[in-house]
Specification:
- It is built from six helices and three strands; from the N terminus they run ααβααββαα.
- With 165 residues, it is mainly α.
- It has one domain (34-155): Arc Repressor Mutant, subunit A, CATH 1.10.10.10.
- The longest helix has 24 residues, at 25-48.
- The two termini are 19 Å apart.
Length: 165
């Protein structure tokens, strides 16, 4: 059965199955992700008045207009977070919400000229933060890290049974 995961410890595992939080990969990934998000959020909020979800929405829409559901799938943010970020960006004239001619039940979200301009200001800062975070890694390590993260994402999607997201 796809997405089925037995959570029972194997017979004889005993104390070896004890969870040591600092050695638990999901915890390490969460701590690293939260630390990076906090670092970048301070810069986006202080300099540009943007929250992390607002910046993520702008970054994904810089690649082209999408429906809210497509944004949810692409960013793995929940619908409420995407909706709130979109509403706030529309209010700031950084984003427009247009009728989706392909599906009358949804709207397309797109950056305005002002939104594209702000994205153009922020993108170099985002790249500089990425470079600073990765400065201690060799290019081959960065490539391996990215490849492994993609594999972990795929495994999590497969295990959750959420492939259609």
């Amino acid at each position: 059965m796809a997405g089925h995961l037995s959570l029972a410890p194997e017979p004889g595992e005993g104390d070896r199955s004890a969870l040591v939080l600092d050695d638990y990969l999901p915890f390490r990934l969460s701590v690293a992700s939260n630390g990076v998000s906090r670092l970048i959020a301070r810069a986006y909020e202080d300099r540009f008045g943007l929250t992390v979800p607002q910046w993520r929405l702008m970054a994904v829409l810089a690649e082209g207009a999408l429906t809210q559901q497509q944004v949810v799938s692409r960013t793995v943010m929940d619908k409420v977070t995407v909706s709130r970020a979109a509403r706030e960006l529309v209010a700031r004239s950084l984003l427009v919400r247009d009728a989706n001619t392909g599906d009358g039940r949804s709207h397309l979200l797109a950056l305005t000229a002002m939104g594209r301009g702000l994205h153009g200001e922020i993108a170099p800062l985002a790249k500089a933060y990425e470079a600073a975070l990765l400065a201690g890694l060799a290019p081959s390590e960065v490539a391996t890290l990215k490849r492994l993260l993609l594999r972990l994402e795929a495994a999590a999607t497969r295990l959750s049974g959420d492939g259609g997201r």
